[in-house]
Write a structure and sequence with these properties.
heterodimer, A: mainly alpha, three-stranded antiparallel β-sheet, globular, B: six-stranded mixed beta barrel, 21 strands
Chain lengths: 122, 892
């Protein structure tokens, strides 16, 4: 039982840094419920990133606990209520810092992956 | 907790709703993109993955996991308890009895010893005592103060508010029937120093604290209730105490007591013109004080010590060598503390045995569940989880046991207090309050750790696979040792209690067989409050007593009557230092003796044997030669083997038997010994042999100087030898001795047999309690032996089967088991005996009349214990001998 759980936790760990940022980024434009969020991430990434729902909900609840996003129940024409998440002020700040961190990271990685370019610079 | 649970349930439902909506949306999209409803649902599910796990992982994020885990463990524990109601019942009963008895004892310790005084800011209250250089602190202890010294302290001290009180007693003759009452003479500040408001009316005013002021009185609350039916209109009314009419100005608050019992009446100390209050040599005044705001104890001590040294210089005759000291005020409980701690300790041993018992039961259970636990480990339970499971079970048991214990304690507290021999000081403070509950909770935590530690330590399976592969039926050496350790410690603890009970029993038997030194049968003793009118005139007092004795003698059923100052085995004594030559050394080097004045019939009435010479007769009177009669203890210690008869004793502190002595003067003339009588066990049957002060002498009441007659008369008692059952004489005597004015009262009426019986009451009570504790300990220890042996034997069945298959006889097998038990029992007895010798020492010091620990006590107790242990081992041993070898081997 616990071993299976561990496996899931490991997977979220790998994604954790980016998944949080992706959720925050996606919520920046409009509040969304869980399903819409996973669709949006998939669509916006050109179907490359597929969010594992086993990680999505724990991530959403964790972000909610941290106060970066907030949720409210909204009625829908489908029947069941939908839990709609939106970004909080703290979440916006967090997104900014995560983005800059990510950008630094990708620049760094890019620098390593393409060392030639660097030498070309006069 | 409830709130959390409710929220948790709600959030669970919401999470499920959220995930369901997700699935529904995915399904809807699938349908829109052309899938059938069934296909769409399946693909939505497939895409989502395991819903339950997603839920669980999400829930983990909430941070309630520990609570959920605890809840689960609790549920698991309850479920497993339900499967073993017998185990649970025994464990609960054992723990309930153990904690119940301990909680009960602690409620006494707490109420009597630990609780602060029931006044506001009790931590700022102090007492002022006197100490005199060279006085034996063991006999005199802390001295009170002279009234004049108190007034000086009060005047000098800047850091203390001080108040004084003097204990007194006398006849209250109106309103209503005459009654002998206890009263406090108090300084007007007493109630304000203690910060207690009066129930009704007011305290005394400073201007009422002078001789010649209008007499005023305050009623004690209980007395007001008893005698005045709580009427508010008593204020302004009057009462007559010792022939003086007082105006009632107030009623003291309920339960107000200082130094023992609640007094009936309070009067103003400053109004009392009695000589002893103006004499710095007499110290009748209790002094209590309160530190003024900002003042510290050291400051107060320095101030009072300074006053004391000034007084010692200014009044050399009376105050030389006397210093004054300030201490925190403690409730006066006498030497009860040691008894209460002793009982708490004894009951603590019972609790320890109970814990050992439950721990070994739980250990046995944990080990027989080893396969189950191994299975859980194999399925992924962590080691920590199993430890937690064990501790949860023991905590659950301990808490339930603790609750049961508190209930038992609450239920048995009143009967127990009623059963306590004599007066328990501060008994009104003894109740199950937050202190006691806190103690019970602490006890439950302690027991849960004690009971759960061993199983928790053992339970986490060493190698799960190994256990699963091996049959369940093996016991590792380590486990067996742990089990034996429980039995050994239970035995050792039980021995301590058994030996203690044995020692108490022996002491009681020994004391009961002692000769009290007088004939206690058919003897009635009582105090008499002589008519206040008689007491007022010293010239009338001897006739008053003579009249009393004559009247008593005329009551049918009365054989003889005497008046006597101190009655054996009852509170109240008088003691003097003596010397055999005129060259008397300082006070602290003089040997001391108990002194009592008596009338000529004393020996005959009490049945005390005359060894030599004579007792007093009517020729011993004021002006004739001062005579005394000594007991054989004094004769022996003062004169060795020589004849004491005709020798002289110098007794400087004793008032001189001269007709015209008006003041206290030290007596330089000696007293002639005219007789030697048998020793009387004044301190009670148990206590007398070890008492500090045993020598006794008697002097004739007729030779008491007139100026002391009034004081002496307040101390005198009457003893009556009866030809009928003595208690039937009480009413006729009461009627006959009322006196002409009808205001003479008898009080503290006892038969000598009662007094002798009461003098052993504490020993009897302790014996009973220790007997109960020891019995309980023995039963618990036997249950422990039985449980452990039954368990160990059960685990050894395959081995036993094998032994029998290769030729062991049933008796060999029984012996195998018994030998195992005997090993544990003997080891326990060895350890216990050493501990019991140490415990015996404690008992010798704390309980009067204890004999040194005797070998015979052990020799009586050991077969007793062995027998019990053998009985407990017999059943498992027999069961082992009936093992069917084939069956046992097939179990493997």
């Amino acid at each position: 039982m616990s071993q299976r759980k561990d496996r899931y936790q490991n997977r979220t760990e790998i994604l954790q840094g980016t998944l949080d940022m992706l959720i925050l980024q996606t919520l920046q434009w409009a509040p969304r419920h869980g399903y819409a969020l996973s669709r949006a991430i998939r669509t916006n990434s050109g179907e490359i990133l597929k969010v594992d729902t086993g990680s999505l909900y724990p991530a959403l609840h964790r972000l909610e606990r941290k106060g970066w996003i907030a949720a409210e129940w909204k009625a829908s024409e489908l029947g069941p209520r939908l839990r709609v998440y939106h970004l909080t002020k703290a979440g916006k700040r967090q997104l900014m810092s995560e983005r800059s961190r990510w950008e630094r990271l990708t620049t760094g990685i890019a620098g390593i992956l393409n060392p030639a370019q660097k030498e070309d610079v006069p | 907790m409830k709130w959390t649970l409710w929220r948790r349930r709600q959030r669970n439902a919401e999470l499920r709703e959220e995930i369901q909506a997700h699935l529904l949306l995915a399904e809807r999209e699938g349908i829109e993109s052309g899938q059938t409803e069934k296909e769409a649902r399946h693909s939505a599910r497939r895409e989502f993955g395991n819903v339950a796990i997603a839920e669980e992982v999400t829930r983990d994020v909430w941070g309630w996991r520990w609570a959920a885990g605890a809840l689960q463990e609790l549920r698991y524990a309850i479920r497993s308890f339900r499967q073993h109601p017998g185990f649970v019942a025994i464990a609960l009963l054992t723990l309930g009895l153990g904690t119940g008895a301990t909680t009960l004892m602690f409620s006494l310790v707490s109420g009597v010893l630990l609780k602060p005084l029931p006044y506001p800011e009790p931590e700022r209250l102090v007492a002022v005592n006197g100490h005199t250089e060279g006085w034996n602190a063991k006999i005199y202890g802390e001295q009170k103060l002279a009234y004049l010294d108190f007034l000086d302290c009060q005047h000098d001290s800047r850091s203390l508010e001080l108040a004084a009180l003097v204990y007194n007693s006398g006849t209250l003759s109106a309103p209503g029937d005459p009654q002998y009452v206890d009263y406090f003479e108090i300084s007007p500040e007493l109630f304000s120093v203690l910060r207690v408001p009066l129930e009704l009316g007011r305290a005394f005013l400073p201007e009422e604290d002078k001789t010649g002021a209008a007499p005023v009185a305050i009623l004690g609350y209980s007395f007001w209730q008893r005698r005045f039916d709580r009427r508010a209109d008593v204020l302004g009314g009057s009462l007559v105490l010792e022939q003086k009419r007082y105006t009632i100005v107030g009623v003291a608050p309920a339960g107000f007591r200082l130094y023992g019992d609640e007094p009936d009446v309070y009067t103003a100390l400053g109004q009392d013109a009695a000589g002893y209050l103006r004499n710095r040599a007499a110290q009748p005044v209790h002094v209590v004080g309160r530190l003024r705001p900002g003042a510290r104890l050291e400051q107060a001590q320095a101030e009072v010590a300074l006053t004391g040294s000034h007084l010692a210089q200014a009044f050399v005759d009376t105050n030389k060598g006397r210093s004054l000291r300030v201490k925190w005020l403690h409730p006066p409980v006498g030497d009860l503390g040691s008894t209460l701690w002793l009982l708490l300790g004894a009951v603590g041993l019972v609790l320890l045995i109970a814990c050992a018992n439950v721990a070994s039961l739980m250990l046995a259970r944990a080990i027989s569940r080893e396969r189950e636990l191994a299975m859980r480990v194999a399925l992924g339970a962590s080691r920590g989880r199993l430890v937690r499971q064990c501790l949860t079970e023991s905590a659950l048991l301990s808490l339930a046991g603790g609750m049961l214990g508190v209930m038992l304690a609450n239920w048995s507290l009143q009967p127990f207090l009623a059963f306590w021999p004599g007066d328990l000081p501060r008994v009104e403070e003894v109740r199950i309050d937050w202190r006691v509950l806190l103690f019970a909770v602490a006890l439950a935590v302690l027991t849960s750790v004690l009971c759960g530690l061993a199983p928790a330590w053992r339970a986490p399976v060493r190698q799960a696979e190994q256990v699963l592969r091996a049959g369940a039926r093996t016991v590792s050496t380590g486990t067996r040792r742990l089990h034996s350790a429980f039995v050994v410690s239970e035995m050792a603890l039980a021995i301590i209690l058994l030996v203690a009970a044995g020692m108490l029993g022996r002491a009681l038997l020994h004391a009961s067989s002692l000769d009290p030194g007088l004939d206690i049968r058919d003897l009635l003793v009582m105090r008499v409050g002589l008519s206040p009118a008689t007491l007022a005139d010293p010239a009338k007092i001897p006739a008053g007593w003579q009249d009393l004795v004559d009247r008593a003698r005329r009551v049918p059923g009365v054989q003889s009557v005497t008046a006597v100052e101190i009655v054996p085995m009852r509170q109240g004594n008088n003691e003097y230092g003596y010397w055999t030559t005129a060259d008397v050394p300082p006070e602290n080097e003089q040997p001391m003796a108990l002194a009592s004045s008596a009338t000529p019939d004393y020996l005959k009435v009490m049945g005390i044997p005359l060894r030599e010479g004579r007792f007093f007769d009517e020729h011993d009177r004021l002006g004739s030669e001062p005579v005394i009669v000594v007991d054989d203890v004094l004769a022996k210690s003062a004169f060795g083997g020589q004849d004491a008869l005709g020798k002289n004793l110098w007794i400087p502190e004793m008032p001189c038997p001269q007709p015209n002595t008006s003041k206290f003067v030290e007596c330089s003339t000696p007293f002639k010994i005219v007789g030697v009588v048998g020793h009387v066990r004044y301190w009670g049957l148990a206590g007398d042999d070890q008492a500090q002060l045993r020598a006794q002498f008697y002097y004739p009441f007729a030779q008491v100087a007139p100026s002391f007659l009034r004081r002496w008369s307040q101390l005198m008692s009457v003893a009556v030898r009866a030809t009928v059952p003595p208690l039937t004489l009480v009413e006729p005597l009461r009627r006959e001795l009322r006196g002409a004015a009808g205001d003479q009262v008898l009080y503290q009426v006892r038969t000598m047999e009662q007094l002798a019986h009461d003098s052993l009451a504490m020993q009897r009570f302790l014996l009973l309690l220790f007997g109960i504790f020891a019995g309980l300990a023995l039963v618990l220890a036997c249950i422990g032996i039985y449980g452990v042996l039954a368990y160990l034997t059960g685990r050894r069945i395959p081995e036993i089967g094998l032994r029998m298959a290769i030729g062991a006889s049933p008796s060999d097998v029984s012996w195998l088991i018994l030998r195992q038990s005997l090993g544990m029992v003997f080891l326990g007895m060895g350890i216990g005996t050493i501990a019991a010798v140490a415990a015996g020492r404690i008992l010798e010091n704390l309980v009067e009349g204890m004999q040194p620990t005797a070998l015979s006590t052990f020799i009586i107790m050991i077969p007793f214990l062995l027998l019990a242990a053998m009985l407990a081992s017999l059943v498992p041993a027999r069961r082992a001998s009936r093992v069917d070898p084939m069956h046992a081997l097939r179990q493997e």
